[in-house]
Design brief:
This protein is of the alpha/beta class. The chain has an eight-stranded mixed beta sheet, with helices on both faces. Helix 1 packs across helix 7 and helix 4 crosses helix 5. The longest helix is centred in the middle third of the chain and has 17 residues. It is globular. The N and C termini lie far apart (about 35 Å). The relative contact order is 0.15.
């Protein structure tokens, strides 16, 4: 399955793109940052890596074109998190994805929305990966997150690194901070995004795999 879809959330129809590889073992929803969209080349590169590893992916727009015109919406983390909660319910209702463990991959402000949504009661998320995220924008909600969370930050992205270190102290779930050496905020350096993709792949596959009883 590799097709464009419409994700219906609370009376709003959001455009998205779903890829379900053969024998998929989970699905990851990509939560883009401000100024980006489902067409983000960086998110698409990571999604390709996940698809090759047998994970389904959904890249979607958090807001409609009309909503994006109001810049307040772009940075309304609570609104974006509510939208993601609805998208999660949509994933659970799809025949091709029913029963799959769900993960979130959030970038920049999208990471804050992913963490906020993961802490909402009733939301079943198995794992979260943040790329250059702003978890500080979900401060106060981080303690409610139960899904294992991987924070990935560029070594030269000093401000965001400090914000992630502070957020890590708020998290009560399994969590890890990984630094991509000599990478800046957008991971544009040679090999940097590839490293992000590999970190994300390993985090999702390890946490989507059921633990065998001893």
């Amino acid at each position: 399955m590799n097709e464009e879809v419409r994700v219906d959330v609370g009376g709003i129809s959001l455009p998205g793109h779903v890829v379900v590889p053969p024998q998929a073992e989970g699905v990851v929803a990509f939560v883009h940052g401000s100024g980006s969209s489902r067409h983000s080349p960086r998110n698409r590169q990571v999604a390709d890596e996940l698809n090759e590893a047998g994970l389904a992916t959904l890249l979607f727009d958090l807001l409609t074109l009309e909503e994006e015109l109001d810049r307040n919406n772009v940075f309304d983390i609570e609104l974006l998190a509510e939208r993601l909660v609805g998208v999660t319910a949509w994933l659970e209702a799809q025949d091709d994805l029913a029963g799959f463990p769900i993960g979130y991959f959030g970038a920049s402000t999208g990471a804050a929305a992913a963490l906020w949504a993961a802490g909402v009661a009733g939301v079943d998320v198995r794992a979260i990966v943040s790329r250059g995220g702003r978890p500080d924008l979900a401060s106060g909600r981080l303690g409610a997150v139960r899904a294992p969370t991987l924070l990935i930050v560029g070594g030269y992205d000093e401000v965001v690194l400090d914000l992630n270190l502070a957020a890590q102290r708020e998290l009560r779930c399994e969590n890890e901070l990984r630094i991509v050496p000599e990478a800046t905020h957008l991971f544009e350096e040679p090999g940097a995004l590839r490293m992000v993709a590999e970190f994300a792949r390993d985090w999702f596959t390890s946490h989507f795999t059921p633990v065998s009883p001893i």
